[in-house]
Write a structure and sequence with these properties.
Length: 156
């Protein structure tokens, strides 16, 4: 496939070109897609697992090509990593409520920005797209665990 197709995928149809906070925009796009799929088809955690497993390798491929084309190891326009990481966080929801959606967003962005151990180590995996996506998948796992705990504690 061409670099143009890789750019389309890695930037999630150019959402990554938003001038302010492209990572936040990518996470919001992920929430919108998940919400629409849940609302329209009743898609829940099983759907999220499947789509995350399907899109992650494609995102790694596309992010590798886009990073190479831009000459940047982790270009901010690549937001496919935020999308799959946000979906992975949602898998931890014990129920889909307005509060759980908000917490999923907050937890994912917190762990994606903070990068507690060992998330930062995953950034260095090669090729570049693997590291770009893998650290956000790890942030998504942390977010899913936090979201699961909040649900079990009755916070949503």
């Amino acid at each position: 496939m061409s670099p143009a197709v890789a750019n389309l995928i890695s930037t999630v149809f150019y959402a990554g070109h938003f001038p302010k906070g492209p990572g936040t925009v990518g996470a919001l796009v992920a929430l919108a897609i998940a919400y629409l799929m849940q609302d329209a088809f009743g898609a829940g955690s099983t759907f999220l697992v499947g789509i995350t497993l399907l899109v992650s390798p494609l995102g790694m491929w596309a992010a590798t090509i886009t990073a190479r084309e831009l000459g940047n190891g982790d270009p901010s326009v690549v937001v496919i990593d935020e999308v799959v990481g946000q979906w992975l966080t949602l898998i931890g929801a014990t129920a889909f409520t307005p509060t759980s959606w908000l917490l999923a967003f907050v937890f994912f962005r917190l762990f994606d920005i903070w990068k507690p151990w060992p998330i930062r180590r995953f950034e260095h995996l090669q090729p570049a797209g693997v590291g770009i996506v893998a650290d956000d998948l790890m942030a998504g796992l942390y977010g899913a665990a936090a979201l699961q705990l909040c649900g079990q504690w009755g916070l949503y």
